[in-house]
Design a protein that fits this description.
heterodimer; A: 205 residues; alpha+beta; Nuclear Transport Factor 2, Chain: A; 8 helices; B: 250 residues; mainly alpha; two-stranded antiparallel ribbon; 11 helices; 3% strand
């Protein structure tokens, strides 16, 4: 009886796995992460080349306008067209640079996908649940994906319950609050992050 | 207990509250609600950053330089094993009886077969860690997190977590045993080693976040506060904290 139950459970799990693998949003995120692992993280190219490759995937896969609008909050509306364009470009560069510093931390961890979940308040968006199987303990990663005319786009990545989009929004909003909403100053700071040492004081009046 | 008094005492000495923003600035109001003690917290944060730059960071880098990974893993395993009795009590307090049995199994296995906990035999044979703390117990019991607090040396916290740390400080079996044996200073050494070991293991990610942030204080706060929301049971929260309106947010 116990054996029969085990077979039944295994069947259910495999059925569930097939279903999860066929969810279109899951496929989109899985393909993207596979490409990043092979072409960037495991690639033997120079760091600069890896960074370019990553930036290409990053720009293609993310809905940068939505993210830009969200992370700047009300300051997005106050910014002019040029500032918005420059902010998005700088944001991509800064984020790519930040991720590229962490490329070396990758040591072959696998990503397991568990399927997608609907978001009640936003019918065009879904969450894709996954876990990075790190050596010490798995890290829960949730991808917030939006279906657009041109296909799926990522709008947020949630790591251990921490939304990256919300983190950026809080950080930029604190900076802009302390600097009279000067979006150009924020862009300048993002461009020159590498040379700043005492960033904890930057937002202080 | 003395350690807890030192921490809370130094916080009270720095006591200062932000005044609530006037007018209709929604962004400022949101920031105030998230961190009503911001002026005091920023002062402690500044102190922590100085200690980090001149003491913790170089010591952690030195520790990394002189020890191979295998030794550092052994130290982490040893410290984690010393914490298993605390996890056991909190598994019970959270009514996670199955986990408490697992925790006991882990502690006995790692203490006796893992050479006083230096080797994590239990994880290797498929008994995962159920590490939890008294502050997580308070969260499970529905205790509110309270205002965000930055603790001297210990960093991001809140009232709930600080209370949890306080209770753990004077119920920690290592502390009780050391007190009975009249070697209380041993606990300071254990805490010191733990701080350096934790710092070393988060060195790369922490420094990368610090370098890339335009306001590191807010990045740390936002990360900590969101991560804390994970502790709440799904039935306590209406929806996950990472679920917010993306397109219609102001």
């Amino acid at each position: 009886m116990k054996k029969l139950f085990t077979y039944f459970l295994a069947f259910l799990m495999s059925a569930n796995f097939c279903f999860a693998a066929q969810d279109p949003a899951v496929l989109f995120v899985k393909n993207l992460s596979d490409k990043i692992i092979t072409d960037v993280l495991q690639s033997k190219q120079e760091k600069n080349q890896k960074e370019k490759e990553f930036e290409k995937y990053f720009t293609e896969a993310l809905d940068l306008k939505s993210i830009g609008r969200f992370v700047l909050g009300r300051y997005w509306r106050q910014a002019n067209t040029n500032q918005r364009k420059e902010f998005v470009e700088t944001f991509v560069k800064a984020t790519t640079r930040s991720w590229s510093d962490r490329f070396d931390l990758y040591s072959g961890e696998k990503i397991v996908f568990y399927g997608e979940r609907k978001i009640e308040s936003s019918p065009s968006q879904v969450y894709v649940d996954s876990k990075i199987m790190a050596k010490d303990s798995p890290v829960e990663v949730i991808w917030r994906v939006k279906k657009k005319k041109e296909g799926y786009k990522i709008i947020d990545i949630v790591v251990e319950n921490v939304s990256m989009a919300l983190n950026y929004r809080n950080e930029y909003s604190a900076f802009l609050q302390a600097n009279n909403g000067d979006v150009s100053l924020l862009i300048e700071n993002l461009k020159h992050q590498k040379t700043k040492e005492k960033k904890e004081d930057v937002s202080k009046k | 207990m003395k350690r807890f008094v030192v921490i809370v005492g130094s916080l009270l000495m720095l006591g200062a509250c932000a005044s609530a923003p006037k007018g209709n600035d929604a962004e400022a109001l949101r920031a105030y609600r998230a961190d009503p003690l911001e002026p005091m917290n920023r002062q402690v944060f500044k102190f922590n950053m100085t200690v980090d730059t001149y003491v913790l960071d170089p010591v952690a880098k030195g520790y990394r330089f002189i020890t191979p990974q295998i030794v550092r893993t052994g130290v982490n395993n040893f410290l984690n094993n010393l914490y298993e009795p605390v996890t056991f009590v909190n598994n019970l307090l959270q009514f996670e009886f199955e986990k408490s049995v697992q925790t006991t199994g882990r502690f006995l296995t790692n203490t006796f077969l893992g050479v006083a906990g230096v080797f994590d035999v239990a994880t290797n044979v498929g008994v995962p860690s159920n590490k939890t703390s008294f502050s997580e117990t308070l969260a499970v019991w529905g205790f509110p997190e309270g205002p965000y607090l930055v603790l001297p040396l210990l960093g991001p916290s809140n009232v709930r977590r600080t209370m949890g740390l306080g209770v753990e400080t004077f119920t920690d079996p290592v502390y009780l045993a050391a007190e009975n044996a009249g070697v209380e200073n041993l606990v300071w050494i254990k805490d010191g080693v733990r701080i350096i070991a934790v710092k070393e293991s988060s060195l790369d990610l922490y420094n990368s976040m610090k370098k890339d942030s335009v306001d590191f204080y807010t990045t740390m706060r936002s990360t900590f506060q969101q991560n804390q929301k994970k502790l709440l049971e799904p039935d306590v929260q209406e929806k996950p904290s990472y679920e917010f309106e993306f397109d219609t947010e102001e």
